[in-house]
Known about the structure:
The protein has 6 helices and 7 strands; from the N terminus they run βαβαβαβααβαββ. The chain has helices at about 15-25, 40-55, 70-75, 85-95, 100-110, 135-155, and strands at about 5-10, 30-35, 60-65, 80-85, 120-125, 155-160, 165-170. α4 packs across α6 and α5 (about 100-110) packs parallel to α6 (about 135-155).
Amino acid sequence: MGQHIALVLGGAASGKSRWAETYTASLAQDLIYIATAQAFDKEMENKISAHQATRSDRWQTREEPLDLAAVTASLPSGHAALTDCATMWLSNQILAEKNFEKAADDWISALDTAASPVVIVSNEVGHGVVPDSALGRQFRDAQGRLNQRLAAAADLVVMITAGLPLALKGQLPEGI
């Protein structure tokens, strides 16, 4: 198959994770789910559990809230990986006061040489109102830049709205 990076964008509860899981499962028999979320409260614990319950036993989960470059670089060939999601990863970077621009550079470099296809889920944050806090505006701008960089590196970019996919770059696979 060769190098393959797909970016799946959408708003909150748009169906992007479900579509990305289905697409990733079409790429290989052996699947890796790279989970970036951290459960800081009961609501997030429930959301993570609900996501886990929908995945079959074909999925191997790797929890990695910060170092996506390392986990991406270690992916075995013959698998397909889903990173869900870049938005939570960026939030984790900002909250941990990491140099997220450097971390993004490292991750994108790792994506370029990954041994497996990688599908990335990310929130499109540019369609909402301007955040009223400096931190909110910093996050929105950083997420927009990250999405642009991931889209430039990707072979396929898909926008999900109301569960429906629209190819922004590349071609949608048939039957998904």
